[in-house]
Sequence to fold (295 residues):
Amino acid sequence: MRIRNLNTFLTVARLGSFHAAAAQLHASQPAISARIAALEEELNVQLFIRDKRGTHLTSRGTQLIPYAEKLLSINREMRAQLADDSLERGTIRVGIVDTLAHLWLAKLLSTWHDEHPLIAFELIVDTTSSLIEQLKSSELDLALMVADEHPLPNFVTEPLCSYPQCWVACKSLDGVEKINSLEDLSKFQLLSFTHRSRPRQYLSELFRPLGEQAPVIHSCSSVPSLLSLVEQGVGVAFMPEPLVRSGIDTRQLVAINGLPKAPALNFCCAWRLDDDRILPRLLADTARKMIKNQQ
Fold:
């Protein structure tokens, strides 16, 4: 759909005349008629009625006005933000869960700054549930978080990345090589994220059938602290695989196979539906492309 045709439509609708619109847009009247005809053909509706009384909007034409105005507004904002002499200033508040912060925050901030050099970023590292509440209260402009299993009303959510989850332990942890079942695993202390996190909820459901025989699960909201605990042999950790990949590669940590395979942990970008700025979407698109290209 061509922006020029939408602009022509709004001009004709405002002036109530193809002739007046042609004069204002510095175009011939046949050119104006051709643009409207192309838009009508694309939408498969009639937008204007022309009779002896003049030019009038149809009901479909009236319905189109707010959408056309919004598209033109987005187009103007996009051009302004991309123009070298119209760089946006100000502060944008971005929330991010600790897993993504540990893996990507430095590269994300560097890339975002290169693209928007006059924007100051206020970065909040928190749990998904807290980030959702901060989005709802307009304390955040954008959140990079664990994707919810159900649609979030009043939010735009778009996929960001997905990571497998795995069981790992320090190679020197006594008896780790003998773990082949949940019953074996229950003899060890387990390490994972906080109670409201998706990995922790998975563990609760996984061990529910064991009742009182279920293992003790220690929770920690900090990825660096969680990694330190597992590296020091405190217990067996259940974490997204990229967080422990380097430890496995250096053989400081060992992946435990033979246990139930957990579902992948999906992440998303989210912002408020009533936020009509293009910047949150641009930042989300940059994050998705950067993570995809570097995985």
User: Anything to note?
Assistant: Residues 73 and 283 are 19 Å apart (CA to CA). The domain at 165-263 is CATH 3.40.190.10 (D-Maltodextrin-Binding Protein; domain 2).
